[in-house]
Amino acid sequence: MPPYWGVEALKAQAIAARTFAIRKLGQGGDFDLRASESDQAYSGLTDQREESNAAVDGTRGQVLTYQGQLITAFYMASDGGHTESSEFRFVGWDNGPQLRSHLGYLTGISDAFDRGPSWQVGPFTASGAATVLRDNGRDIGDRLLGIDVLQKDPSGRLVGVRVRGSSKSVEISGPTLRAWFGLPDTLVDIVGGG
C-alpha cells in the first residue's frame, strides 16, 4: 500500500495484515507466511516507509475478530469492482461444487472505487491452451475448441467452466483455471474462438 494513501488507510492495512499473519502462525510447517501474493507480498526492509511503520506502531496489539475469534483477514490490491463472499471464494468444481460456509464478516459488496481489472493474459493458441491442460493432467486432445462458463458467483467470478477439446471435454473450477493459466483473478472475460 503506498504511503500517500493516508494514515487511517495505512492503519487499517496494518491491522488487517497483523490479523492475517497471527491467524497463519503455525499452519505452514517449517514457515508461517510466504513473502508472495499467496500470503503477504513483502519485498523486504528496503521498501519499508516511515508512514507505514508509524501505522504499525500506532495500532500495536489491535486485531480483527468475529464472535471472539481472529478472522482470516483477506485483502488485495484490487477487487475488480466487487468483493467476494466467503462461500464463493474457496470453491472446487473439479470434484463437483464445494461451497464453503458463509462467514458473516466476509460478505461480497460492490466497490465503486475500483473500476475493475486492467490486465490481460494471453492470447493463448488452441494448441497452447491444450498443452497447458495436458501438463496439468487434463488431456483434452490437440486443440482447445472452446470454454463454456458453467457458473459464476454473484461478483461475476468464475466458479466452474467446461473446457471443450478436440478429443474430450473436462470441467474444472475457476480457481484451477486461474492457477493453470496464470490469471491474477477469476473475474475474467473469456474471449476468442477455437
Compose a concise summary of this entry.
Helices cover 25% and strands 13% of the residues. It has helices at 7-24, 50-58, 86-89, 126-135, 174-181; strands spanning 65-66, 69-70, 144-152, 158-165, 169-173.
Please give a structural write-up:
Helix content is 25%, strand content 13%. The protein is an alpha+beta fold and 194 residues long. Among the domains are: 73 residues, no CATH class; 56 residues, no CATH class. Strands 3-4-5 form a 3-stranded antiparallel sheet. Strands 1-2 form a two-stranded antiparallel sheet. Strand 3 and strand 4 form a beta hairpin. The radius of gyration is 19 Å and the shape is elongated. The chain starts with 6 loop residues before the first helix and ends in a 13-residue tail after the last helix. About 5% of the residues have low confidence.
Write the layout of secondary structure elements.
Blueprint: H1 7-24, H2 50-58, E1 65-66, E2 69-70, H3 86-89, H4 126-135, E3 144-152, E4 158-165, E5 169-173, H5 174-181
Antiparallel strand pairs: 1-2, 3-4, 4-5
Helix pairs in contact: 1-2
Which blocks of ≥5 consecutive residues have pLDDT under 50? 91-99
The H-and-E topology, N to C, reads as: HHEEHHEEEH
What about the largest sheet?
3 strands, antiparallel
Structure class: alpha+beta
Write out the strand line-up for the largest beta sheet, numbering strands in chain order.
Answer: 3-4-5
Strand residue percentage: 5-15%
Mean of pLDDT: 82
Helix content: 25-40%
What is the number of strand segments? 5
The number of helices is 5
Please, what is the oligomeric state?
single chain
End-to-end span in angstroms?
Answer: 40 Å
Characterize the overall form: elongated
Rg computed from alpha carbons, rounded to a whole number of angstroms: 19 Å
